[in-house]
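1st attempt posting a full record on here, be nice pls
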Amino acid sequence: MLRDHHEAPITPAERAMLDFAVALTRTPGSMTRAHVETLRAAGLDDRSISQVVQITALFNYYNRIADGLGIEDEPEWGQR
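the predicted structure (as tokens):
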């Protein structure tokens, strides 16, 4: 799952959340209401959708700080 969540044995709701997180991370300016509706169709309620957005945004924020400060990844992360 670390390399490609499409190959992982996860639920459709989990796959929808990960697809959403990838889209929000890679192309945040292209997010639309349709992305949110995809999460709703997968069974997520407003609270869950808000959590997906906030957690994704928080990790992206942390990563930008680390990148901006030149912090290197942990060596063992590349071993997976």
